[in-house]
Amino acid sequence: MTITLNHFSAALVFSLFASIVFGITHRETTRDMVRYGVYCFAMFLGGVLVAGWAMWVLRR
Amino acid sequence: MANSTTEKAKLTETTPVTLMGVLAPAIGWLIPGAGHMIQKRWIRGLLLFVSIVTLFLLGLAMQGRIYKANGGDILDMLGFVGDVGAGALYIITLANDWGQGAIAFATADYGTKFMIVAGLLNFIAVADAYHIAIGKKQ
After folding, report:
1. In chain A, how many domains are there?
2. Hey, which of B41, B112, B119, B131 would disulfide with B136, CB 3.0 to 4.6 Å?
3. pTM tops 0.90, yes or no
4. What domain count does chain B have?
């Protein structure tokens, strides 16, 4: 079985699961784990968008 | 004077070796999240299991390549170290000869990276399980 994800979907999936693991392992309380996980997810996705636009600018 | 002696003693104090301190990381490496589950952190363990296993399986499904032990290129060696972190997933993949990679698929490279990252995330999870076992974390 082969799964084909486009670039953004792959980044989204990666960010989601990495953020879950980071949230759990880097904080003590449940509330802090959730907050940090969401923060990591936002940073991952934000980084993807910034990098994408930066590459677009460089290519111009 | 006394303060610096106390501080030096604190720096050099070692954590006593306990059964859980050995078992949790070992089982956590073999089965992602299990190191947390055996310490009754069920939800954390389950989330870690789902996240790491899904990443790894997605990587396989995207026709990613699994690295074997090698003495070649530094990146190949790092890939091996990452993959080995996945524990039983890595062992099963090698045993079934999966993860051969497929240049024909554009996303196969993503699949390779997914599997490496799954292994690396499991190393982080193993360290977390160890910290819970030695009482450094709740």
Report:
1. 1
2. B131
3. no
4. 1
